[in-house]
Amino acid sequence: MKLMLVADPAGLPGLSGQFARPAVTLPEVDWSREAVFVIDMGEQRTAGYGVSVVAVTRSAAGEVELQLEIRRPGPGSFVAQVITHPYTVARVDREWLNGATVVARDQHGQEVLRQVVSL
């Protein structure tokens, strides 16, 4: 799992992969007040993977918290053999980001990513 911060539309990242390199589609963003996180699961060799943002909050300690729903096929699942590259985007208030620690947790509360970001 990888987190990328996009501070302006010119900084839109490409997603890297050996086979699947999807273009990132952004929601409507007020760049003067907001930035965007791209949460990238990377290239996957079957269908059944996905990630979505349930909530973006700021803790009392100043950490930006991303609540994610992460989907993976279960053991023995019948899935299509196809290259996929699941990702999602989340808007966040720019004021939250200078030197902030971003913590992403899955639907079970397990930390899946921690990263310090700055504009």
What is the alpha-carbon Rg in Å? 15 Å
Count the DSSP helices.
Answer: 0
The number of domains is: 1
Lateral strand order in the biggest sheet: 3-4-6-7
- Overall spatial form: globular
> In terms of quaternary structure, what is this?
single chain
Mind describing the biggest β-sheet? 4 strands, mixed
H and E order: EEEEEEE
Q: Low-confidence stretches at least 5 residues in length (pLDDT < 50)?
A: none
Report the helical percentage. under 10%
Round the mean pLDDT to the nearest integer and report it: 91
Could you give the distance between the termini? 21 Å
The fraction of residues in strands falls at 35-45%
Report the strand count: 7
Structural class by SSE content: mainly beta
Describe the structure.
The chain is mainly beta. It has one domain (2-117). 0% of the residues lie in helices and 41% in strands. The chain has no helices and seven strands. The chain has a four-stranded mixed sheet, with no helix packed on it. Strands 1-2-5 form a three-stranded antiparallel sheet, with no helix packed on it. Strand 6 and strand 7 form a beta hairpin.
